[in-house]
Structures are given as structure tokens and as C-alpha cells.
Prior knowledge:
Largest sheet: 7 strands, antiparallel
Strand content: 35-45%
Structural class: alpha+beta
Number of strands: 9
CATH architecture: 2-Layer Sandwich
Oligomer: single chain
CATH superfamily: START domain
Shape: globular
Order of helices and strands: EHHEEEEEEEEHH
Amino acid sequence: MTLAQPGHGPAQHELSISRLIDAPPAKVFRAWSEPEWLMQWWGPHGMTTPECEMQLWVGGLFRTLMRAPDGTEYNNQGVFLEIAAPRRLVFTDAFKPGWVPSDKPFMTAVVTFDEEHGKTRYTARAWHWSASDCRAHEEMGFHQGWGESLDRLVEVVTQRMPD
Length: 163
């Protein structure tokens, strides 16, 4: 798979969200790549992320456990495909560690952290394997959920995380 590069347009079955964050790219990248920070913001409002495991290398594990207010748990596992600190992270649920194919691949995420006048142009793209998966993710509330996670990320990097 060739990963799309900036300027080459959206992937075929893509959902995305973008925002200018008042923090440098290195800081926003840290909030994404260090479990102790990611657990503070990952997931929509009301959700918690009590567990996060990261092996920050290509093929390394990326696993989160999100818990809804009613106690329902969502375990997500995949691998990193690309790590270009502090500019870009790419991960997918298409594989488990050891490049073992997953039972039901759903998406690949491409997260970029572009410097813009001392701030970060944050863009998260979710690429789906099919139009129906993309539609299902949108109906699940992609924009609201990822937007609420982004609100929480902004709070972490602008108010809690030291420089």
C-alpha cells in the first residue's frame, strides 16, 4: 500500500477532521505517542481510556481500551505503519503485531502535525477499506467523537502538558 502524501488529495473512503492547535507539533505529537498523555484525552466526552499500549516502531502494537459511561468497553488493537516524529503517525487495525492479518480490518488512520506559525495544523484522516465501512464510521459519529477527542487533546497540550 502506498500511503498518500500531503497534497495528493483524500483517499477514496476517507473521513477527516482538522484544527489549528496553539501548541508546537512536537508537543502535540507527544500527546499522541506517549500512553500516559494519550489516555488523558483519547475518546469522546464521557469516555475514559484506562489502558493504552504502544510500541512506537513500524509493526509495533497500538492498543487502547476505551470505557463508556455505562461500563461498555471497546478494545482496539492494531499496528503502526509509519512514524515520522514529530510530523506524522500512521496506524491500522488491518494487522496485529507480527503482521498477522486481523479478522475484520476497518480503517487506517493518518495523523499529521504540520507547523503553522508556531502552532500545529492537526489533521486526522480515517481511511476505510470500503464505502460501507466509511459510511458506518460516519454513522457511528466520527465527526462528533473525533471532534470531542480533539477538544480533549487541545486541553491536554495547552493546559496540562508541560513545555
